[in-house]
Amino acid sequence: MKISAAIVDKKGSDFHIRDDVELADMTDDDIQVKMVASGICHSDEALRKGDAEIAYPIVLGHEGSGIVEKVGKNVQNFVPGDHVVLSFYACGNCENCLKGEPTKCLHYAANNLSGVRPDETAHFTEDGHDVADMFDQSSFTTTTVVRERNAVKVPKDLDLRKLGPLGVATLLVQERF
Question: Domain Alcohol dehydrogenase-like N-terminal, which positions (predicted)?
Answer without folding.
Answer: 28-156
